Every structure is written in C-alpha cells, then in structure tokens.
Amino acid sequence: MKQLAIVLAAGSLVLTTPVSASETNTENSESDVRSEFSVDASNLKRSYFFDGVEYDYSRAEVTLLGDISGGKNTLETYAARAEAAKQAEQGYRDMQERFGVHEIAPNKFKWNDEGAKGETRVVVSISRQLAFFYKGDTLVGAASVTTARDGKLTPQGIFPVWMKKDIHYSKAYDNTPMPYTQFLDEYGIALHAGPNPGYPASAGCIRLPKEFAKRIYAMNEIGTEVLIGA
C-alpha cells in the first residue's frame, strides 16, 4: 500500500486572490448570521477560522494514517477541510497556468502528462465544479465534475481510495451503472464516470467525464488521496 501523506511543495499554496469556504448559522435573522468555519484558501499558512478566531494546524493533522479498509479512515476535521480548500484553489491556479483556461465545459477535460512523475492525488473543487489530477507536483489533468445537488452531501476533507471497481451498480439508485468507481468512504461516496451537466446534480458522489474517469482509475492505487474542498 502506498504511503498516505500529503505532499506539499514549498510555496505551492501561494495564491493571489483570497477565496473562502464557510458555513453559516441562521438561527434568528439575517443580521444574526455568523461565520462558524472559514478558510482563506489564498493563504499558504496552515490555518482556518472558527467564530473569527484563527487556529493553526500541522502537517500531521492532514496526513492519512492507519488501515483504510472499509472506508472509515477519513479526515473530515476543520483542518482537513481547510487543507482541501487550499489545494482546490491551487489546483485552479495550476489549471490556468498549465492549460491556459479559466473554465472547462461540462463533460470535457484537459490532459498533459508530459514530464509528470510521482504519486497521484485528486483534488476536487465543489464551488468551481472541477477536479484536478496530479502526479507528484505536476498537474496532469483537469475536468468538469458534478457533485451533490441540494438536499444531498458531497463531504469535504481528505479521503483515501479504499476500493476500486471497473463497474459498479448503485443499490440505492435503481442499479444505476457507475463505471470506473473509486470508493472514498464507508457511505458509498465515490469518484466515478457519470452524467456531468456542469452543475451540482449527484446524490453525493463526484461524477467525472468518462474518459477522464478511466484514465485516473488506471493510475490511482488503493490509498491514493482525494482532497475535496469547498
């Protein structure tokens, strides 16, 4: 099994435009809205905010360790969610630099594996509906994705690929086919090929363009890290 660790190049998260991922609590009225958890994705520093207070986190807190069988060993802490948000923002910057684009149309992807070496990882941006595939520190591919629709949840944090299936049929959704499935947690959240309209529409899984799903399925191993950020 491959070593489960976040590989962060020095300065790899330095961005120019602040982007935040936050939750709000609307107990009374709009005037009472308060930000509970938020992260400045443009900041290299490993930190997040809770109720306006800044908290630092360490590399160890965003490193997957232990037995991943069964999909129970996931990191969905504030630290993990902050790290995923930072890497999602960096993925977007890397996409602009490597492919010269600011967006990707539904069911489309970009690919360039020239000079790419190292362990693979997948980074997902929920807000931008994009996925970024890396080998080492090199962005190899970027694709449009579809995450959870209203009333459903695509979890945020750091997840290991703990099981792969060439084709899986969803027991919860009328045996819907899910090609190139890579399961991320014990509840059935997975990366897989599927309808990709360009907006949130899934029951929680991350749907990918079929050819993109096929390529990363072939390259990823059990234990590959998937970071899902706001």
Automatic annotation (TrEMBL):
Using the record, list the residue span of the signal peptide; answer none if the entry has no such feature.
Answer: 1-21
What's the name of the protein?
A: L,D-transpeptidase family protein
Q: Does the keyword Signal apply?
A: yes
Query: Which keywords describe this protein according to UniProt?
Result: Cell shape, Cell wall biogenesis/degradation, Peptidoglycan synthesis, Signal
- Origin species, per record, is Sphingomicrobium clamense
Q: In which pathway does it act?
A: Cell wall biogenesis; peptidoglycan biosynthesis
**What does the record give as the active site?**
192 (proton donor/acceptor), 205 (nucleophile)
Q: Where is the L,D-TPase catalytic domain?
A: 120-229
Q: Please give the superkingdom of this protein's source.
A: Bacteria
User: Cross-referenced CDD domains, in alphabetical order?
Assistant: YkuD_like (cd16913)
Q: A Pfam family this protein belongs to?
A: YkuD
